[in-house]
Amino acid sequence: MEDAQISALLQAIRELHQEVEGAEGADAETRRHVLSMARVRLSTLEVPASLPEAIHDGLHRAHRHLAELALALYREGGCDDLDEAGRQAYLDEHAAPLTTIAGVGATLARRLFLHGLVSREQLEDVDEVTLARVPGLNAGHRARILRALGRDEAG
Asked: Are 79 and 32 in contact (CB under 8 A)?
């Protein structure tokens, strides 16, 4: 059964990749929609804990890649046609995984995301100096994030 589950997951990821790739060069609204749908579909894939760690690692990389694509689209002006509420909703949607870290709410997640820290794994690897460069992230925020990740401020 595991081989069938792995094959199904790989096929689903390939299809998502093809959809995202197929949207390159499309208008911003289409690209936003495709990224959003890919994120939702990737999040809803059933991934049994019994599957090999490499599969779970691959799924984490896929989530991170989608977040990086969403950030790149935002940075290149892909949300300029939206009003402020629309831009905030876009950022909140793609930064939401960061809110699973204790002490990181939507505003803090947005700040981290806009600074290029789009995944928990990136935050686990980041040092205090890099966190200090995030606009609007004070010493209390940094300490809370590091504590939630099981680290002290010395890193």
From this structure: yes
